[in-house]
Write a structure and sequence with these properties.
With 383 residues, the protein is of the alpha+beta class. The chain has helices spanning 48-56, 98-108, 113-126, 145-157, 175-192, 203-209, 227-232, 237-242, 282-288, and strands spanning 4-13, 22-32, 37-41, 63-68, 71-72, 83-86, 163-167, 195-200, 212-217, 220-225, 249-258, 261-266, 277-279, 295-300, 305-307, 319-329, 334-339, 344-349, 361-366, 372-375. The chain binds adenosine-5'-triphosphate and magnesium ion. The site of magnesium ion has 2 residues, from helix 1.
Length: 383
Amino acid sequence: MAKVILENVYKIYPGERGQPEKVAVHDASFEIEDHEFMVLVGPSGCGKTTTLRMVAGLEDISKGKISIDGRVINNVPPKDRDIAMVFQNYALYPHMSVYKNMAFGLQLRNVPRDEIDKRVMNAAQILGLLEPDNLLERKPKALSGGQRQRVALGRAIVRQPKAFLFDEPLSNLDAKMRVEMRTEISKLHNRLNSTMIYVTHDQVEAMTMADRIVVMKGGYIQQIAEPLKLYNQPANLFVAGFIGSPPMNFFRGTIRREGGSLWFYEDGKDPSGPVVKVKATDSQAQKLGSYEGKPVIFGIRPEDVTEQLTASPAPPGHTFEATLEVLEPMGAETFLYLVTTSHNLIVRAGPIDAKSLVGKRLSLVAEMNKAHFFDVATENVII
Ligand SMILES: Nc1ncnc2c1ncn2[C@@H]1O[C@H](COP(=O)(O)OP(=O)(O)OP(=O)(O)O)[C@@H](O)[C@H]1O
Ligand SMILES: [Mg+2]
């Protein structure tokens, strides 16, 4: 049982040898509910590890407050916070067996021997360390990366902590093992039903594992939401571009009034090139009214644009043209890489065979009610 609350938390590293101070985390406030799987995601250097280390007590909190179950823990030493942390480099003791690696922390805490045995065997069973091969007497060097990662997880599980903290625990594994361990950790969360805070720079990991996601950039929290909410209603340009693969397509342009409607016109570099010109829906027009004559960024996801080869006739104001440069057949789907007068875009289509269309202009349909508009200056979403 653990509810973790961060209130206006800052991490300020003092500047050394004439260097300016570094604010690694700015004013972070959020709550992690009991049993919740919260993921912190963002590019390298955005402050994820620093935030996690402040929760664990491995880093001082410069300003603000962190509490667990109502108790402020700013000055509580790490060992008394009842939290277990799993790191990227799982740091197993090389000279100890798998069993000993898991039991050691409990021995230090003077947990009775039969209780240790019970917990280790239980964790070993959950993590598949007993079957098909019993790995308990092996040394870490005789294990695969994924097996070592399981032992590191086991070491955290046996402590029965209030909360688990993970710092990129899968980044040393190969792609296939990463996907496997991702599901293992999700299953573990369902089974243990404990609070987990998980740090990753991989938005796919974040989307697939999280109950909720905190997106960070440059020490600032950008948005906190459930995965699909982040995907469908990004708060700003950064979140829109960071979550989703292939990423959202963006076009710079201007809002203009024409025939009583508001239209987005892509800024064109090449007068002969195809230009995106699409009509805002009624609800978009309500929010875009004050942007008439002003620059905006138009965003649309690859799956919300269809090529007219397969699309049924589109309502007016939804179609535009672009030149097909590359076609990537992936089997179940096809990625089309296209260019307009001044932007590249990606379209996610079904399994089409259209190599002969490379170099040609295609007619495309944008699903306008799925489109997003962003303010150029603030980069916040308009609608
Ligand atoms: N001891 C320190 N002194 C000064 N700056 C530091 C210190 N430790 C970290 N930083 C800076 O704080 C910022 C946040 O670092 P942090 O390790 O939290 O990033 P991260 O989001 O975990 O990145 P990554 O994905 O690369 O692990 C970085 O710019 C980093 O250089
Ligand atoms: Mg980190």
